[in-house]
Amino acid sequence: MSVQDKIREQVTTNPVVLYMKGSPQFPQCGFSATATQLLKMSGADDLFTVDVLQNPDIREGIKQYANWPTIPQLYVNGEFVGGCDIMREMYQSGELQKVIAAAKKPG
After folding, report:
1. Which end of the chain is more exposed for a tag (fewer CB within 10 A), N or C?
2. What are the residues facing 16 on neighbouring strands?
3. How far is CA 33 from CA 8, 71, 88, in A?
4. pLDDT, tens digit, for every residue of 19-30?
5. Helix ranges restricted to H, the chain
6. Total-model pTM
7. Looking at domain 3-104, which of 3.30.1700.10, 3.40.50.300, 3.30.565.10, 3.40.30.10 is its CATH number?
8. What is the DSSP string of 32-47?
9. Do β-strands 48-51 and 16-20 pair in parallel, antiparallel, or remain unpaired?
10. CA–CA gap between residue 106 and residue 55 (Å, rounded)
11. How many CB atoms within 10 Å of residue 101?
12. pLDDT tens, 36-67?
């Protein structure tokens, strides 16, 4: 399975996916820490995370997958949402909470 296929499988089989540095319990950068906090405050309790520091192929591959140069990256229902700054703006406007709530609904 190619790196792109693996990423595609991760984002399409999990409703909310965050590619980050570290884990939600031990984030390895401030942006990843902020992203996990925003998701938690938005009600994302079934968050699937991928620590890009553990897999250099995924770390590079995810940047190409969404054509987005930075990490963290958030995917909801298979769609790229954005990075930390976009997530912060969406949270402040109430949009992130709506997107996360919609991700929980089956089908």
Report:
1. C
2. 76
3. 24, 11, 12
4. 999 999 999 999
5. 3-13, 30-41, 56-65, 84-93, 95-104
6. 0.94
7. 3.40.30.10
8. HHHHHHHHHHTT--S-
9. parallel
10. 30
11. 12
12. 999 999 999 889 999 999 999 999 999 999 99
